[in-house]
Write a structure and sequence with these properties.
By secondary structure, the chain is an alpha/beta fold. The protein has eight helices and eleven strands.
């Protein structure tokens, strides 16, 4: 589960450790202009939420691209969409993909933050655009996918990273927060997958990576709605994988344990110490493990996307290594 450094938990970075839930083999714009497209509200609302540093940009980009080509089969010219890309894992992934030569289109609600990420990528020599996107609004999600296809003529990868969560007991839960959680995390992911698949399936090629959480498989008290939404994403991904089996599209998940992101900055400060103590008691938080960094997760996703077409890393798990 991504966890904000503001949570009161240690912000000490840990060494990342990868685990495979399964490892099957499958047979199957220009840099100028406005940084980020502004999206109108639309009517399709659901029921009502540095991998490569800018410094030494050119040499860093060349080094990253060279190492990719030696190790994996990711090529220049591919096009990817990343949601929740204004900070944390999404921003780190966008930079990492762009450093490897992928043209990226980024979506998130915070327009100014998105433009900052796009600017940093362009200054590093990458190609990036962004679309202001609220995952709760169907028309905005569809426009994000359409923008990538319209500007670049293709879509090779979709990474569904956007998510929200609220720290509450179920007894004190707020309906509007539950609704925002499921609209953003689950329905938004479904809409993005649908829009991407309508382009990928006719081409018999494409990758979808859905970012899930340790809470999808473990009982995290005080995060019941968030955990349920992430469990839904995991099950959705397995069902979708079965639907598209043999059709040229890979569907993968990455399960993220405690990461140094902005998730949790809106948590109730009175409840957070209580929740943290309980998570430690249950073994969900390990005081010796620290946090993984967004760049660690980004590189793990790159690893998934970079596999040859004959292979698929279905479900990957990343956590901080115990010291």
């Amino acid at each position: 589960m991504p966890l904000a450094t503001a949570s009161g938990w240690t912000s000490r970075p840990g060494s990342a450790s990868l685990r495979r839930r399964s490892w099957p083999i499958s047979t199957s714009a220009a840099t100028g202009g406005s940084s980020c497209a502004r999206t109108p509200g639309g009517t399709g609302r659901h029921r009502r939420a540095t991998g490569c540093p800018v410094r030494r940009a050119v040499s860093c980009r060349r080094s990253a691209r060279s190492s990719w080509r030696e190790a994996v089969e990711l090529r220049d010219g591919l096009v990817g969409v990343v949601t929740g890309a204004s900070s944390g894992i999404g921003a780190a992934l966008a930079r990492e993909l762009a450093a490897g030569g992928m043209r990226v289109v980024l979506g998130a609600r915070r327009r100014a933050r998105l433009e900052d990420v796009v600017t940093s990528i362009r200054e590093s020599g990458g190609v990036a655009d962004c679309v202001e996107t609220d995952m709760r609004v169907e028309a905005q999600v569809e426009r994000l996918i359409a923008t990538a296809i319209d500007r670049h003529g293709r879509l090779d990868a979709l990474v569904n990273n956007a998510a929200v969560g609220y720290l509450r007991t179920v007894a004190d839960g707020r309906s509007e927060e539950w609704q925002s959680t499921f609209e953003t995390n689950v329905l938004g992911t479904l809409v993005a997958c649908r829009a991407a698949l309508r382009h990928m399936l006719p081409r018999a090629r494409g990758d979808i990576v859905n970012v899930t959480s340790a809470s999808a498989h473990e009982a995290w008290p005080y995060l019941a709605a968030y955990a349920a939404s992430k469990a839904a994403i995991y099950t959705l991904s397995r069902a979708l994988r079965a639907e598209v089996a043999g059709l040229g599209v890979r569907v993968m998940t990455i399960e993220v344990h405690n990461a140094a992101t902005e998730f949790g900055t809106n948590f109730d400060p009175a409840l957070l110490p209580v929740a943290t103590r309980r998570w430690v008691e249950l073994g969900l938080l390990n005081p010796t493990a620290g946090l993984i960094m967004p760049e660690d997760v980004a590189r793990a996703i790159v690893f998934q996307l970079s596999q040859p077409e004959r292979a698929s890393v279905h479900d990957l798990e990343i956590r901080a290594r115990e010291n």
